[in-house]
Design brief:
- The chain is α/β, with parallel strands linked by helices.
- The chain has 4 domains: 95 residues, Beta Barrel (OB fold (Dihydrolipoamide Acetyltransferase, E2P)); 140 residues, Succinyl-CoA synthetase domains (Rossmann fold, 3-Layer(aba) Sandwich); 94 residues; 34 residues, no CATH class.
- Helices cover 46% and strands 19% of the residues.
- The protein has 12 helices and 13 strands.
- The protein has a 5-stranded mixed barrel.
- A hairpin with a 4-residue loop joins strand 2 and strand 3.
- Helix 3 runs parallel beside helix 7, helix 4 packs parallel to helix 5 and helix 10 packs antiparallel against helix 11.
- The longest helix is centred in the C-terminal third of the chain and has 47 residues.
- It starts with 20 loop residues before the first helix and ends with a strand.
- The model has no long low-confidence stretch (mean pLDDT 82).
């Protein structure tokens, strides 16, 4: 049995099968979509046009052929689209099909990237895996940025707009910060080596007797993947990782990611954002300082009031005002107790002598001598008891007097003055306990630990 071009059996008796144009076109379309499907194609854009609907039409060509392409606008399909124009060399991914209305095969494009971007992405991923295995991306090696830097360095192009934006923000937010600009090329051959050398030289400032910077910012403005590639080089990654000074990366726009971003201690989405993150805002800092000053003032006033209250209580206490009188009264009470004990002892002895004299006349001489001897022994023992008791009482009273004297010395005005307090009196020696009792022009005497100072109230 014979078959046609597309594998359809031909009838034996009726002759060749006749296809319609639509059937042929649909068969070609099915063959392309099933046997080729999605492909990557590289070429130069020509005949580019963009419709009001957002759909983009262009021809992809090389030296020998051309291919019609269409990129349909589909909301949410791309996070980032390459701006297309005639003459661009691009790589496109899409499904090969046939536009049946014209019988023309075309590529329904799904993704467009600049020619060479695929190779760059492969190099990026390979280096990323290598450095990750070496531990350069580990969170444990990330260092915190200084809270209040006073000197920072910016490694960037001296002519770029990114540097001007950063300097304007730093001047507005933290005018006290000194900024060192380390000029380098940020794209092209040799740019990566210049960036790495700049980071290394900033880390060696102290070797030349210069003050070390607090923070290094590696920055450049936006650009294509090729423009930013210097920040994807291994030499830059190792220089940032080896830096003893914290490093912030601020390369390109928010959607751009580089190897430098992954190695740095902090990634800023843009150079301007890096300037914002690097230093505190002066206005916010002043508000915080004012708040802390007010809090410290309240605590100080409270402490002063508490000290004044304690001093006022001490001044009003009787012990503070009349320590000598208290000491004298205690000494007098002790003297009175000693005198009373002596009188009682004398009266007891005199009574015993009287009883002995009265009994002696009633006894025979021999008995009297015996009783007198016994009485003398008893009297001697009693005398010892009285002496011992007197000594004990006197010792106890002496200890009480010494303890009272120690308390009086601790609470005396002299001891209070020795602890750093002062005492103010009027010209006649009267203690002043309240400021309201002092009239303007009054003569005042302030007592210190080592002297006194005269003054006049105003």
């Amino acid at each position: 049995m014979n078959t046609d071009l597309f594998g359809v059996p031909e009838p034996v008796s009726s002759g060749p099968r006749i296809f319609s144009v639509s059937e042929i076109t649909r068969s070609v379309r099915n063959a392309l979509e099933s046997q080729i499907g999605t492909v990557w194609v590289e070429g130069e854009i020509s005949n580019y046009r963009k419709q009001a609907s957002g759909h983009q039409y262009f021809t992809l060509k090389d030296d020998g052929s051309q291919l019609s392409c269409v990129l349909f606008q589909r909301p949410g399909m791309w996070r980032k689209q390459v701006a297309l124009s005639d003459g661009m060399c691009v790589q496109v991914r899409g499904a090969l099909t046939v536009y049946e209305a014209r019988g023309q095969y075309q590529l329904n494009v799904q993704l467009v990237q600049p020619a060479g971007a695929g190779l760059l992405q492969a190099r990026f991923e390979a280096l990323k895996r290598k450095l990750d295995a070496q531990g350069l991306f580990g969170a444990e090696r990330k260092r915190p940025l200084p809270i209040l830097p006073t000197m920072l360095a910016i490694v960037t192009s001296p002519t770029g707009a990114a540097l001007r934006d950063m300097l304007n923000i730093l001047t507005r937010r933290a005018p006290w910060v000194r900024v060192i600009v380390s000029p380098v090329r940020v794209q092209g051959d040799g740019a990566a080596e210049e960036i790495a050398n700049a980071v290394e030289e900033l880390n060696r400032f102290t070797e030349f007797g210069l003050r070390a910077v607090d923070l290094i910012i590696v920055a450049r403005g936006g650009g294509s993947a090729e423009d930013l590639w210097a920040f994807n080089e291994e030499v830059v990654a190792h220089a940032i990782a080896a830096s003893e000074i914290p490093v912030m990366s601020a390369v390109g726009h928010e959607i751009d990611f580089t190897i430098a971003d992954l190695v740095a201690d902090l990634r800023a989405p843009t150079p301007s954002a890096a300037a914002e993150l690097a230093v505190p805002d002066r206005a916010e800092l002043m508000r915080r300082l004012d708040g802390l000053a007010a809090l410290a003032r309240r605590h100080l006033l409270l402490a002063v009031e508490q000290a004044r209250a304690r001093l006022s209580w001490a001044v009003r206490s009787e012990l503070f005002r009349e320590p000598q009188l208290r000491t004298t009264e205690a000494a007098q009470r002790l003297d009175g107790a000693v005198n009373a004990l002596q009188r009682a002892t004398g009266e007891l002895l005199e009574a015993m002598r009287r009883r002995l004299r009265e009994g002696a006349g009633k006894l025979r001489p021999q008995q009297a001598a015996q009783m007198l001897a016994a009485a003398r022994v008893s009297l001697a023992a009693l005398q010892k008891q009285i002496d011992a008791r007197s000594t004990s009482v006197l010792s106890e009273r002496g200890q009480q007097l010494r303890r009272l004297g120690q308390v009086l010395r601790v609470l005396s005005p002299e001891a209070t003055l020795a602890r750093g307090y002062t005492m103010t009196s009027d010209s006649s020696g009267g203690i002043i306990a309240s400021a309201r009792s002092v009239e303007s022009g009054a003569r005042l005497v302030t007592h210190f630990r080592d002297g006194r100072v005269n003054s006049t109230a105003d």
